[in-house]
Amino acid sequence: MGIEFRDVGKTYPDGTVAVTGFSCTVPSHRTLALVGTSGSGKTTLMRMVNRMVEPTTGTVLIDERDVLGLDKVELRRSIGYVPQAGGLLPHRRVVDNVATVPVLTGTPRGAARDAALALLERVGLDPALGRRYPAQLSGGQQQRVAVARALAADPNILLMDEPFGAVDPIVRRGLQDQLLQLQAELGKTIVLVTHDIDEAFRLGDEVVILRTGGIVAQAGTPKEIVAAPADDFVRDFIGADRADRALRTVDIDGRSVVVDGDGRPVGVLE
Amino acid sequence: MSWLEANRDYVLDMLVQHVRLSVPAIVISVVVAIVLGRVAWRWPRVGTVVLGTASLLYSVPALPLLIVIPVLLGIPLRSGLTLVVALAVYGTALLAGTAADAFRSVDGRVREAAEAMGYSRAGLFWKVDLPLAVPVLLSGVRVITVSTVSLVTIGALVGIPSLGNLLTDGFQRDIRAEIVTGVVGTMLLAVVLDVLLVVLGRLATPWRVATPTGGAR
Ligand SMILES: Nc1ncnc2c1ncn2[C@@H]1O[C@H](COP(=O)(O)OP(=O)(O)OP(=O)(O)O)[C@@H](O)[C@H]1O
Ligand SMILES: [Mg+2]
Fold it and tell me: In Å, how far is B187's CA from the nearest CA of chain A?
């Protein structure tokens, strides 16, 4: 069950090799975070799941079924998609943006709107914002709407492409918390693309670090990766040698105080 | 004023003829230009040829075109249809490039997200691309509306009645009031249609009214 990438590769028509021989399984109800430098094939891999990109080699399976054997449009409607900033329909009110997929699949508009308003609340937005157009919201609010929209048809799978990449760190943190809380309640199978390693560690049950050409530098749980970075690329990428990752404890008045590489206190060991 | 009062029915009749010639020509131009613009947007190479041909057509002088069309289509020279086809050729030629621009103006991120959500190809065109292309498209439609309304008068030269008759007839019989009525009437019609388009445009793009930046971000 879940999503399986089986030895997939993608070479674009212009000859760009985006991904080569990538294999990975995302168990149901788990979050896979794909991280890597720009152009390392993260988006390409994620898009293979809803057939926005078709692999040139290998297969992508959802619950053991090859996605290439499924109807494109139906497949996409059955998968929640959270685009990067700017992916809302600018000509539709927020409530109608959220109701998009249910309306496409035949839910009466009124019922879909009612459900959409409830969803707005669920992602931490005032339902009154439903009347607005996307341009009348802040960037953070827009991405909350995007999350609500992806959840509207109650899909089993969510695809998220740098969903919080364009908002400031504090707002991003709030959005991440919201997503963690939703995920604890909903248990979706999530593929999340990000270039922010901290976001990958916070949200991902499993993290895959990619290098150019879609080659896996390391895959594992955040703990495994932090504990044993596979090579210098990974060490560098996760900032293993960064002062705030190299923590140690010092004894102060009988308590173990955790300090970072520069000796600044970051907390107390309980 | 007295000439106008005396000839009210005649002027109104010519005005109605004018509308009956220009509106269908405009509508045909818009539809064909959208199709060509879409093709040009989708297949840029074909598009270069299509748009190039279109602008070439625009440079064909009107009178020869009015004579060639009946021959090609086998319709009478003096029928309104001849003029409508000629005007539609000009309108399309003028609008096709703008239509291609209009589709290019749609934010790629929006299209892509819509596609990923599961819009079918047709749904993407009708529900996403077309409505979002309206602002740019409309600017082009306004241009061809004004140009079509003024071009209709040429029909008078080959005997297709419109407000243009007031000009030819007025010149022939040296009636100043008739000429003025023809010119002002044509201009007024163009202005009225233009205002109508602006109003329709606002109704079709409520999101731009609500957000002064036009939702472009
Ligand atoms: N449609 C396309 N045609 C040709 N090459 C493409 C296409 N899409 C992506 N590529 C190339 O494939 C490679 C991987 O792209 P991809 O978008 O998957 O990277 P990414 O990891 O998501 O990068 P970023 O962090 O910048 O979003 C890049 O070299 C990119 O230029
Ligand atoms: Mg990307």
Answer: 34
